[in-house]
Every structure is written in C-alpha cells, then in structure tokens.
Amino acid sequence: MVVLRALGRRNDQGEGHIAPRRPEGRALLVEARRRAIAERLRRAGAITVTELERAYGVSPMTARRDLAELERRGAARRTHGGAVLPTISAHEDSFGRRLQDFEAAKRQLAVAAVEQLSGRETIFLDSSSTTYFVAQRLLEVGSSATVLTNSLPIMELALADGRGALELIGIGGTLRSLTRSFVGPFAVRTVRGHYADRLFLSCKGIADSAILTDADPLEAELKRAMIEQSSEATLLIDQSKLKIRGLSAIAPVGAMTSVLAVGLDADEAAALGRAGTAVDVVGD
Fold first, then answer.
1. For a disulfide at 263, which of 78, 153, 211, 239, Cβ 3.0-4.6 Å?
2. Which CATH number goes with the domain that contains 57?
3. From CA 154, how far away is CA 160, in angstroms rounded?
4. Does 200 share its domain with 265?
5. Strand partners for 176
6. What's the pTM value of the predicted model, to 2 decimals?
7. Which pLDDT tens digit goes with each residue over 110-162?
8. How far separated are the first and last CA of the chain, in Å rounded?
C-alpha cells in the first residue's frame, strides 16, 4: 500500500497541509540576490554569467535577467557574457589603441564627412581617433581646407604628407601624453580666437542618448569651445558610443548640427534625433 503524505506546516489543530507559495516572499528572495550581485560587482568591478550560475545556483537565463535589471537601474553595464561597473566605461585608452578600434567604421565616417565639404572651408578637428581618419581622408583627396586641431598625430600626419595642399593651424597648450593632444587654458584661448565653418568631433560615449561625454574634463572643455566657435558641428560615432559614457559632460546632442553614424538601428537613430539633430546613418 502506498501512503501519500502532505508535507508542510501543521495548522493550529495539528493537521498537515501544504504551505501556499507567497509571491511576495519569492520577490524578496530575487531582490536579495540582485543586491548581492550588485555588491559583488562593486567589489570585483566585473562579473560573468557563469560566476552567477555557480554562486547563486541560477540558470543562465535568470543570471542574464538579473544583470539586465541591474543595468536598467544603472548599477551595471552589460557586456558579452557578463557585466562591468558603469564607471569602468569612464577610463581612457591611449591614442594608439583607440586608432585600432572600429577602424573600418571610422574610415566610413571619414569618407562621409569629407563628402560634405565644399571649397576652401575652415575646419576644427578634435583629438579623437575618428577625426584622425578625417584628416587622412582630406589629404587623400587633396583638400585645400584649413584645419585647426589640438591633435599632435593629425599635425604629424599633415606634415609628413609633403604636398602642402592642406593648411594647418596647430592648437598648442599642455600636452597629454596618453592622448597626444594639447589641452588647457592656452588651448582654449586659441580655439576662442578663431571661427570655423565646420567642426568634426567624436566623444567617449553618449549618456542616455542625450549628452556627449569625454573621459577627461580638459578635453571636454576644449570640445565645448570648438562647438561654440563653429558654424556647423558634426558628431561622428559608431554604435559602440551608445553603450559607454565618459566622466565629463561635453554638451547635449542637440548642440550638434548633425550626426554621422555607423551601425545604428532605426530606434537608436530615432533616439538621437529626438534631440532635434539630423542623424545620418552611413555604410551598410
């Protein structure tokens, strides 16, 4: 004979019954786990889905759902296979390393940017690796534009070209060895002493689809000055810029005349466009 017993707590009369599930209790357990994950992430700086599976005995889907919720709250930034602290995105890579990242996208942006030019225009180029490719493209097509830049690599590129069609005005100041760019009060005064027809610039990332950011406050200050001294300002970005942000705010996206972008889908382009800026997605 098989005897079935109901497992659970006994009621006041001593009778066995199955305890009902309490949704609020389950929600508390989920919330406690997410708080623990957030604390673990704060200590380590990064975490993987596999680590969460082992530490909390959850499925990969549950781990990803927890990370997605923490990202929504601003406590994490998701990466392939895990997450990192949002503040990790504020670090700054060397110019040489940035030059190698997303090179194909930057070349597409450079071609599209130079195609917008007509005649002998005066152009500000910031110290981003993206505008280095713009300068390279200007030299390739034999442009006779006047370029004002605080980027030492762009200055060296123009000098090495030897043809001399491009007129170069170097913006001096305090040299940052990491980015090989000139910044500081003297650089800002130099920018404010000139007016340009156009500005091409990039940024570390875009916060909440609304604010351009940079990793360094002096770079951000100089870019703000360039925006103010330009008749038209064009932002050059690839899709990766929407996933990170820098430490210092530069300006709202709405301060840009236009955005040239590579790799954005329709929703991402529309989000940028809501700031009142024309967004043109180039390439495939």
1. 239
2. 1.10.10.10
3. 10
4. yes
5. 181
6. 0.67
7. 999 999 998 789 999 999 999 999 999 999 999 999 999 999 999 999 988 87
8. 71
